Amino acid sequence: MQRKTPALTVDAIIMKDRSILLVQRKYEPFQGRWALPGGFVEYGETTEQAVIREVREETGLETSVLGLLGVYSDPHRDPRGHTVTVVYRVTPVGGALIAGDDAAHVRYFKGDELPPLAFDHANIVRDALQP
What we know:
alpha+beta, four-stranded antiparallel sheet, 2 helices
């Protein structure tokens, strides 16, 4: 009997002047909604490598991991199935901000002017903005 296990994902918190970088999703689920840059961890890659890759693919930015914000594992956080996300604080170290891969648009939002967010990203952002 094969056991079902959750899929592993990563998300990035990128801050600039008390604003947070979000991507507008190009595809379902949550097409058109804003979300943190992130995605699925590929086999053979660390979560740190995955978050750097996903940010590059979705935003054009080269980043460095600052540290772990937290792990979010609500079985209902993603309508495609049970996912567990590892969320890192990252900082840009190069590249140019441009929407790519699964992102229709990319921009910084002030913490008090956030649009409705996909998945459980409102909870993650709230945690990230805690002093």
